[in-house]
Amino acid sequence: MRKVLFAIMAMSLLTVNFVNGQDKEEKTNDFKRWQVRLRGVGVVPVESAKVGVIGGDVAISNALIPELDFTYFFTKNIAAELILGTTKHDVQAVNTAAGNVDLGSVYLLPPTLTAQYHFCTEKEGVFKPYIGAGLNYTLFYNVKSGAVADVKYDNALGYAAQVGFDLMIDDTYFINVDAKRLFLSTDVTVDASNLAPGLTVPAEVDINPWLLGIGFGMKF
Question: What's in the keyword line of the UniProt record (predicted)?
């Protein structure tokens, strides 16, 4: 009889431990894996160029845009973020042999994917910083050529670095502050045949913009 009671007690203890273990594992994996953010972003190019034929440099205007991003958490610390937004910039060739030349405007669409590490995972934590790095592929479209006949920009693959933090309002909503640097270069061909017969000006342009944003987000 004692052996039977001992066996029953042992089985009960094993069952309790198993259930507790399962509960702990479920709690560990029970977190909101998705979040979406809407930011206002200032885009500040850090531009430079090697301009053929006429020499000089390039000037690219700043921009203020809305930006939408989606983040998926693989674990409580590791996530991937897809960033979507488009910008319009005015462009000039400056300090050339022909003086300053208006190159019109261009839209950039640089979808960017970053891998992130989030440092703070405590449920009660309010300040949640993170860092990230990844890739972007920039599409140039809706080009207006300004004072020249035509301007062509090559689409380009670049790199991205990111740092930011979330300030939790509650378990679902938060305020976000984010800074990204895109390392982006493109080859540009300027058809200036309307200014001088047969004149084509090639240029290697580094855009390398800062993207400085603040916005609101939601976890789900």
Answer: Signal
